[in-house]
Amino acid sequence: MKLGVLCSGGKDSLFACWKAMQHETVSCLISVISANEDSYMFHTPNIRLTRLQAEAAGLPLVEIETAGEKEEELADLEDAIRRSVEAYGIEGIVTGAILSVYQASRVQRICRELGLWCFNPLWHTDQDAYMEELIGAGFEVLIAGVFSAPFDESWLGRRMDHAMLAELRSIAEKWHITLTGEGGELETFVADAPFFSRAITVTRAHTAYRNHNGRYLIDQAELTAK
Amino acid sequence: MILLVDLCYKPGSLSRYEFVDPIARIVAGAGYGVTIVHYSEIRKPMPDADAVILCGTALADNAFLADPDVFSWITACSCPVLGICAGMQAIVRCFGGTITERCEIGMTDIRVTAADPLLGTPRTFSAYELHGFAVGSPGVLTVCAESACCIQAVRHPSRPVYGVMFHPEVRNEWVVEDFVRREVPERGPPPC
Fold it and tell me: How many Cα atoms are found within 13 Å in the side-chain-facing hemisphere of B58?
């Protein structure tokens, strides 16, 4: 079955893509670029770099821009999916949704409308086992945004490894948040994945941070040999 | 051991992560051993199964409806059975009921219409829906709960056979936990 993966550039969508590749054929990545930084549906830091991720994965990218207004962005997403069906003959969509009924049910409705399958391989996953598998499989995940205490500026741009996972476990327990940052506490950017033929090297980046709200913004990046 | 029956479009599919593994985690978390088998590979429950749970499928996945005979073992099953969404549809067809096209996606209100061993006292609670088909007529089964759209829960009048249309793995894990604890108390973890 040919599938399109909704890709935010973060760990959940690219891990879901990797899982989909193990069972079906991934034919394209689909990215929605939202002008609204607080979009309920679409994560924004470094979204334009999904182009490099698609290139690294050897997959075409279907990109669409949206103003990010609450329900209009869903019409824009539907348009992007429709274009992917036309261009690549996809029969289903893959998302990285873990717990969000808001996101999952909206994508499910679009798929129903378009007669497509919908796959959410991380749905209600064991989050600890997922994070272990993510790191163990060789994903290089950078912290691209922090949006709640106790995460401060020092987290921005950090690479996720087992030491960070141990730290996240202790924070998750103490602050009653999910290990994966599913509540929007953290955003990530994937610089390398097991299915990338080349890795993404960040050559210039800056941070914007205030009061436990910050972004690691990649100004320049390139594909380099692994 | 609790036998989970995978109703997805093929064994070891991409959908299994979404519709079978979360149920397995709930059952294991309640202290029970779990075995997962695809529906195409089973004609009767494994001999040592203490209870059977038939799991759901993706919204577009109705392959399990193609051959009703593949689930005929359910009517002869001697152990407790719980069907979730697609699993409930399979159970309803085994007991003389019908399935009709009716779609529901997202959170909805479930009204428990009569006191039920599995769902408890009459009341309303919120649950996650993801189905393209629903129960047309319940056959010999008793209707226990409804939403504005369709029948949401059934049970057999004299045997421990239950079905829920909503997905308990989302915000209603208690349904699965209560099923195994109620029906298989002797195999669960020792009381604290």
Answer: 29
